User: What shape does this take?
Amino acid sequence: MTFPSLVRTEVSGTVAVLTIANPPVNSLSAAVRRDLTAALSRAVINGVSGVVLIGEGGHFSAGADIQEFDAGLDPTAPDPNDLHAAIEASPVPVVAAIRGTALGGGLELALACHGRVASPDARIGLPEVKLGLLPGGGGTQRLPRVAKAAVAAGMIASGRVLGAAEARAAGIVDRIGDDSLAEAMILIEQLGAVPLTATSGRALPPDLAEAIDAARAGISAKSPHAEASRTALDAMAQSARLSFPEALAAERRLFLGLMESTTSRALRHLFFAERAAAGTPGIGKETRTRPVETVGVIGAGTMGSGIAMVFANAGLPVTLIERDAAGLERGLKRIRDVYDRAVAKGDLSAEVAQDRLQQITGRTDIAALSGVDLVIEAAFEEMQVKLAIFQELDKIAKRGAILATNTSALDVDVIAAATSRPADVVGLHFFSPAHVMRLLEIVRARETAPDVLATVIRLARKAGKTPVVVGVCDGFLANRLLYPYLRQADLMLEEGALPEQIDSALNAFGLAMGPCAMLDMAGQDVAWHVRQRQLKDWDPARRYSRLADLLVEQGRLGSKTGAGWYRYSGRQKESDPAVEAMILQESDRLDVTRRAISDEEIIKRALYAIVNEGAFALADGTVQRASDIDVAYTQGMGFPAARGGPMFWADTVGLDAIYADILSFGASGDANWRPARLLEELARSGRSFADHDRERRAEAA
Ligand code: COA
Assistant: This one.
C-alpha cells in the first residue's frame, strides 16, 4: 500500500494518526486536501476506532496555501468543504491535535473535527481578514457553534489569534496538554463512548446576532481590511437565515468575491513581499551569523532612546551613551515615560515594563561599549560627528563587534572607511518612533561582510522589525523616494494648490498623512537640511520650489514651533492665511498664473514621482525588488496597505498610462519628470513591476 506523500498515516492501537507534512507551515494546498481526504477514507474503510489529525513540526496548519489564490484555485482538488463534510460524516471520532499554529483553513479543518486538543504553545485564529479575505471553509459557520458568540464574532472580524488557554476558555479547544497526541487519544476514547455530533449539527448561540452587531460596530473604517471584516460578519449572519449547506455556499461565494478584490490581492502581495524583503544575494540560511548578546546605542535623543527600547524589548541588555549626564537623564526619562504610558494603557504589565527598563543602562563614557557585540550610533545627522564617533569606536570596540550607523541619508561607505574594519560596518536606518515603526532599512555598504548582514537581518526579525536590505544612496530607499514626492507637492503649491487641498486629496487616496502635514510633524528643518545638501549639485533643468525654504526662514518649523504649513494650537491644526499669502506672493514673483489643480492631478503627480524614482532605484540596484519598495512605503511612510504599496498600485493603474502621463508632465522640459529607462521599457513591452520581480527571481534561481 502506498501512502500519500503529504499526509503520513500511522496506526496506534486501533487509532489512525494522520500527520500533515507539508513544510514549512503545513499549508493546506490542493495536494494536501486531496491526500488528507484519501487518507481519511482509507482509515475509515480499514475499520479504525478513531482518527487523529496532527501537523508535523511546529505547526498544525497555517491554513490555505495563499500562493494558490493568485494562481487560481484547482477545480479538480477537493474543496475544503468537501474534506470537512467527509470528516463530519466519519462514523468514528476525528480529533485535531493542535501543536503550534492552527490558523485560517487550519482552524477550519480542526473545527470540522469532533473534538480539538491543544498543546500549551498553540496559536489559534482565523486571520483571513488581514489578507482581505474571510474564512471560506466553514469558519464563519462552525466557529460560532463551538465558541462563545462574542469571541467567535470578534475573532472573525479582527483576525485576532488566541493562545491555548483562551481558546479553551472560549470553548474552541476541549483539552490542553503537553503531549497533544496523548490528549487526543483520551478524547477519542471519550467521544467513542457517546453518540457523535458533527459541529454543523450543533446549535447556534442565542446571542449571536448581538455579538455580530457589536463586532461590526468595532470595525475601524481606517482598517485596510474593513470591507473584509464586514463581509465576514455578513457571512456569519447567514447562519440564522439559511440551512447549513446554504450558508456554506453563501460563505464560499462571498469568499471568492473577496479573493478577486484588489484589496485582497494587495494585502496578499504585501504578505509575501514582507517575507521576501530581507532576502539578499549571497546571504542564505547557511550564512554564518555572529552572536549578539549585548547592544550599545550612542545618542540618547528621540532616535537613540527608541532604538534602546527596541533591543530591551527583545530581551537584550543595552548600554545607552550620551555625552553629558543631563542629556542622558533626558533620554532615560523619555524611555521611562514610554513604559509608564504602556502600563497605564494596559499594553504592558508593570513587571514586564520594569524588566525592560532594567535592561537599559545609561553611561556617559563611550569606552563602556568596549565589550558589546553590536553598537548602533544614533548621534546627530552630520558626517563629521559620525566620522569622529566611528574613529573612536574603531579604537575601543572589541574585534568582531558589529558597528552600525542609524544615518537616514549619509554615505555609509564613507563612515565605514573611517574605521580599520569596514567589513564590520552596516547601516541600520530605523524610522521614528523606532520602538513603534516596524520598518528597518538595512544598508549594505560596499564592504559589509555577509555574516554582519545575516546577523542584523536575524536580529531585526527577532526584534519584531521588517528588514528591507538596501544599497548606499542619498536617502536609501524610503526617503529617496520621498524627495521627489515632496518636490511635486511644493511645485503644485506654486502652481495653484494650497496645503490643505494637497493633504486632503492624498488622505482621501488613503495615505495616513499628506506631505504638508507630514513635514510639519517631522520638522520642516529636517527636510531643509536635506534640500540644502541636494542643492549643492542641483541639476538646473530640474524645477525647484523655494516655498518650503521660505517657511523655514520664517521660523515655521512645523508643529513643534506652533506653525508650519498650518497653524497649531496643541494638536489641532488649521490653515493659516499667512501661508496662503506667502504662497500667492511666490506664484506672483515667479509670474505663475495660478490655476485650479484637480485632486486627480495631485495624486498622479505626487505618486508617479515616487513610482518613477522607485524605477530608478530598482535599476541602479539600491533596491532588489519592486515589492521591497511596497514594504518600505506601507510600513514606513503610511502608504495604504489596501493599495499594496506604490509599485503594486502602479501595476494596477497600468505602467503604460503612467509612463504617458510622466511624459506629458515633463513636456515643458522639467527634468524632474525624466522617466526612468526601466519604467519606459516595462511600459513599452506591456510588462509590470511584478513581472520584473518575477524575471529577476527566475534569473537568480
Ligand atoms: N500559505 C502559503 N505560504 C505560507 C503560508 C500560507 N498560509 N503561511 C506561511 N507561508 C510561508 C511564508 O511565505 C514563508 O515562506 P518563505 O520562507 O518562502 O518566505 C514560510 O511559510 C514561513 O512563514 P513565516 O511567516 O516567515 O514564518 P513565521 O514562523 O514567522 O510565521 C505563521 C508563521 C504561520 C504565523 C505566518 O506565516 C502566518 O501568519 N501565515 C499566514 C496565516 C494565514 O493568514 N492563514 C490564512 C490563510 S487564508
Remarks:
- The CA atoms of residues 28 and 64 lie 5 Å apart.
- The first helix runs from residue 30 to 45.
- The chain has a mean pLDDT of 95.
- The chain has 30 helices and 20 strands.
